[in-house]
Amino acid sequence: MLLSDFWALLDDVFGSAYARTLAREHHLTVLDDRTVIQALDEGVAPRDVWHALCDEMDVPEAARDGGDRTRLIPPAR
Question: CB count, 10 Å around CB of 9?
Answer without folding.
Answer: 22
